[in-house]
């Protein structure tokens, strides 16, 4: 009895197990397990912006002085600190990129003081400004970047100066047609170091001693400087060069530098050197020539530059005249042009860095150039080309083609030593003239130099002040 009951229970248990297994197998065939869906997480706020490249543009925006004054010159020693000189004896100063302006002198449209122009600075403390290009022009100086006093005069009672430059708080020179004068006391006194300017040139097969008319001067270093002008015979460019900070000068002549039948002496030639050897001269018609060997030979660039050239670094340079704007990003080998409609006549500009510049003119106009995000906007801004970033141009190599072309260009006479003026009070120097024996001569071939390099510091875009 017990065995029969046990067997019956066992059979029922096995049947239950069989039915359970069969049921589970059937369900797995008729209802497949759902597959897991792959979902894309929703983008987090700001993720798209971070992944999208930010685009930039160049603009001029107004940071003008709120008085109706004509502003003649501007000079910035850093991207944010600078000075503006203008009518009614005005000198304006800013340390915040033009957000605010303080009148250090003048600033009153009803004032009666003479206009100030031609600002020069060697650092943020030491600067100069002249009242005009008149006879015996008062020269003002600051030694703290804040207070201005007359230090002396520039030019004389017979003829006004053409241009001037300082290389240190004490040393400077100015050119006055046939004369170059030098100061070693910050502008208090001046002594002749080239008087009169004269050179020998070949005219129709004969040698002539001709006079010079010097117009502008530029020092790429504290020791090496150049002054440019023309001869009174026409067609010949005159270049004066110093290698001892202006104490002595040599003269070189370059025939056929410009059209002989044009009276270039009636105009202003402009000179700018990127370094001791590489520089440009612009003539009154905008034509430019370039040298890569310190003025011994010159090559026409083929470019017409609208006005005065200024370079922020060895690559990027500007020229600006009213609505005409020219710029180069390859060291002056090629120039592009644009037209801008500023609200007033442009008088001058300062270019302290490739992504920052300032333009001044009539009616207190001051416009600041900056590189800003493409979405940035401000009333009355003017669109402009964006200069290339230093990040992409951290190193600039001189183009050897410039040197190679110079041999087929305009040849200079070589710098002729000029004796010091017969003035017992003139400053004497033991240094040799610009045509010293250290310069290579035809009998002493110059060794091939390595390709020069300029290091340009990598800088980020300057934030726009608000």
Number of E strands: 34
Biggest sheet strand order reads 14-15-16-17-18-33
Report, as a whole number of angstroms, the end-to-end distance: 106 Å
Largest sheet: 6 strands, antiparallel
| Structural class by helix and strand composition | mainly beta
Percent of residues in helical segments? under 10%
Oligomerization: single chain
Query: What's the gyration radius in Å?
Result: 35 Å
Estimate the mean pLDDT confidence.
Answer: 79
In DSSP terms (H or I, runs of 4 or more residues), the helix count works out at 3
Structural shape: globular
> Low-confidence segments, ≥5 residues, pLDDT <50?
24-34, 36-40, 46-50, 392-408, 422-466
% residues in beta strands: 35-45%
Structural write-up:
The protein has 466 residues and is mainly beta. Helices cover 9% and strands 38% of the residues. The protein contains 3 helices and 34 strands. The strands form 8 sheets. It has a 6-stranded antiparallel beta sheet, with no helix packed on it. A hairpin with a 5-residue loop joins strand 2 and strand 3 (82-86). The longest helix is centred in the first third of the chain and has 29 residues, at 2-30. It is globular, with a radius of gyration of 35 Å.
């Amino acid at each position: 009895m017990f065995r029969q009951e046990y067997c019956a229970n066992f059979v029922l248990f096995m049947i239950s197990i069989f039915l359970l297994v069969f049921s589970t197998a059937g369900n797995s065939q008729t209802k497949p397990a759902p597959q897991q869906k792959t979902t894309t997480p929703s983008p987090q706020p700001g993720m798209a912006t971070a992944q999208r490249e930010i685009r930039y543009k160049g603009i001029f925006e107004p940071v003008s002085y709120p008085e109706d004054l004509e502003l003649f010159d501007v000079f910035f020693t850093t991207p944010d600190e600078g000075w503006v000189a203008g009518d009614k004896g005005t000198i304006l100063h800013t340390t915040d990129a033009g957000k605010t302006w303080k009148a250090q002198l003048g600033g009153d449209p009803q004032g009666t003081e003479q206009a100030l122009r031609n600002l020069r600075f060697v650092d943020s403390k030491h600067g100069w400004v002249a009242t005009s290009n008149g006879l015996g022009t008062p020269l003002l100086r600051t030694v703290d970047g804040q207070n201005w006093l007359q230090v002396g005069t520039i030019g004389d009672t017979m003829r006004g100066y053409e241009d001037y430059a300082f290389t240190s708080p004490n040393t400077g020179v100015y050119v006055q047609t046939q004369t170059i004068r030098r100061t070693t006391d910050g502008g208090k006194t001046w002594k002749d170091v080239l008087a009169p300017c004269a050179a020998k040139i070949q005219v129709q097969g004969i040698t002539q001693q001709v006079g010079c008319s010097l117009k502008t001067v530029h020092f790429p270093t504290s020791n090496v400087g150049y002054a440019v002008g023309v001869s009174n015979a026409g067609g010949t460019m005159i270049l004066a060069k110093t290698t001892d900070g202006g104490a002595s000068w040599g003269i070189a002549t370059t025939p056929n530098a410009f059209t002989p039948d044009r009276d270039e002496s009636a105009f202003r030639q402009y000179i700018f050197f990127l370094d001791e050897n590489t520089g440009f001269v612009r003539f009154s018609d905008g034509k430019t020539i370039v040298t890569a060997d310190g003025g011994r030979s010159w090559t026409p660039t083929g470019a017409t530059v609208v006005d005065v050239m200024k370079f922020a670094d060895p690559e990027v340079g500007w020229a600006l005249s009213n609505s005409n704007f020219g710029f180069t990003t390859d060291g002056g080998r090629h120039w592009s042009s644009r037209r801008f409609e500023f609200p007033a006549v442009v008088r001058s500009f300062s270019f302290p860095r490739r992504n920052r510049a300032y333009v001044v003119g009539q009616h207190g106009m001051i416009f600041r150039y900056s590189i800003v995000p493409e979405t940035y906007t401000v009333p009355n801004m003017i669109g402009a080309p964006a200069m290339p970033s230093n990040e992409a141009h951290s190193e600039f190599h001189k183009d050897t083609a410039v040197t190679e072309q110079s041999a087929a260009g305009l040849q200079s006479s070589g710098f002729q030593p000029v004796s010091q003026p017969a003035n017992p009070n003139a400053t004497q120097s033991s240094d040799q003239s610009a045509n010293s024996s250290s310069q290579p001569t035809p009998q002493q071939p110059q060794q091939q130099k390595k390709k020069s390099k300029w290091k340009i510091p990598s800088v980020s875009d300057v934030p726009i002040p608000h």
